[in-house]
Amino acid sequence: MAQNPVQVLSRYNETFGDTFRIHIGGLKEAMVTIDPAVIQHVLKTNAENYQKSEIQVRRMGHFLGKGLLTTHGEAWRTQRRLIQTGFDKKQLEALSSIMRDSLAESLQDFDRHVRVGPVDIYPHLMKITFAMVARSLFGARLKDEDIDLVSHTICTVQEFIVRQTLQPYMNPWFAVSGKLRKHEDMRTRADAVLLAYIKKRRNGPPGHDLLQTLMDARYSDGKGMSDELILSESMQLLVAGHETSSNALSWLLYLLSSRPDCIERVRQEFDTVLGEAPLGYSDVPKFEFATQVICEALRLYPPFWMIDRMAVADDRVGDIAIPRGSMVIVYVYGAHHAPRYWENPENFDTERFAKENEKLRTPFTYLPFGAGPRGCIGGNYAMLQILMILRDLLRTYDFQLASGQVIEARPMVILRPKHGIRMTFTKTIAPAPCIA
Ligand code: HEM
């Protein structure tokens, strides 16, 4: 189970059906489900009764303070309503140019690396996407060294939180050995850097970024958020958007590397829709095939391979009793790979997501961005980001999987490639032909 939970849980699904109970680490009982009716109940219909897990609320809250990821109830609802405006159509269109500029800058660095030989795409894509998210939040002028510091802090602190959760018996040692303090200090340094940007903005001209949305947002009493709350909400958006789009893109490029037919079709679509024009948020619905390709990659490799919740009060779905305090694991990977919901589930088949096939899908069996009120707030942003990066990479490069490697998924908090994904990039010889 610790080595490969996906393999074990999928086998249990085959043996015991859509919903079963297990003892995690031999101790805590959890209910694991891919049953669409149970998923709909837990994530949507009775979402109020299912809070986020301990790792998100207590451990992350210790480092990240209060924010969308770590709060419940009315406090969460109010914040969600305010922050949502930062991800509406108008705002995403405004963010598009910051994202494009950041991408262009990052791709220069990427180019220097891929010229030399094969690269592991995972850390490179993470660097590219993180810079885009960080600049969308704090503005185009966010310095490279500040982005690196915050990114390094998030990676290190996240790894520490995972250790604290997986090895709780080590926590007294982490406290006395100074490890806990070391990670708290890192967080304090990153906070100070970002707080300086917030203070500068308070006293300077407005921007067109998410920071400005957070600053302009008003509660019903007309008051705005404090600098400290803006800081913790920003940090939580950075954490949530840190490794998700890059993870999705890594698996997408891996899948595409064996499908030159799909690559050509996506290239032609980008060409037909945009020609030489820049990609903005209003263009997103025009990329039907590219969207199908992305959706299918997110089905096969959902970055969040499971979503965990805890029942606040006794509950029941059909004949399944869910006692108060029990853990419910929505097994996203299992739902995406279940033969009873998907034909030939292991095949990369983009037609599943063609518009005409939409009605064939069972609701609540496709959950890359979660579902219900706590579903991903950054889903549309992520789709825009993935399309932008894919377009620029396909315009510039042909790419191939480097030989002699085993590609395997490692389900930690998110579904990472266990040994990375090494690829060779060569410049495209001529621009892809346009379809008349
Ligand atoms: C392909 C990329 C992404 C995927 C697959 C993804 C997936 C998810 C999922 C599954 C959840 C729900 C978790 C749960 O119910 O416990 C979630 C929540 C969230 N995501 Fe994303 N995400 C992505 C990108 C982003 C980006 C780019 C941002 C921000 C810039 C973001 C911000 C958030 C936030 C703040 C939440 C918590 C929402 C709340 O609790 O109200 N995500 N995401």
Structure commentary:
- This protein has 436 residues and is α+β, with helices and mostly antiparallel strands.
- It has a single domain (5-427), classed as Cytochrome p450.
- The chain is built from 16 helices and twelve strands.
- The protein has helices at 5-16, 36-45, 54-64, 73-84, 89-116, 121-138, 144-166, 171-177, 179-202, 210-216, 227-240, 244-256, 260-274, 288-300, 332-337, 379-396, and strands at 19-24, 28-33, 50-52, 119-120, 307-311, 315-317, 320-322, 327-330, 397-401, 409-411, 415-417, 422-427.
- The chain has a five-stranded mixed sheet, sandwiched between helices.
- β10 (409-411) and β11 form a beta hairpin.
- The mean pLDDT is 93.
- The structure holds protoporphyrin IX containing FE.
- Protoporphyrin IX containing FE (HEM) is lined by residues 52, 68-69, 80, 133, 236-237, 240-241, 244-245, 248, 303-304, 307, 368-370, 374-378, 381-382.
- Protoporphyrin IX containing FE binds at residues 52, 68-69, 80, 133, 236-237, 240-241, 244-245, 248, 303-304, 307, 368-370, 374-378, 381-382.
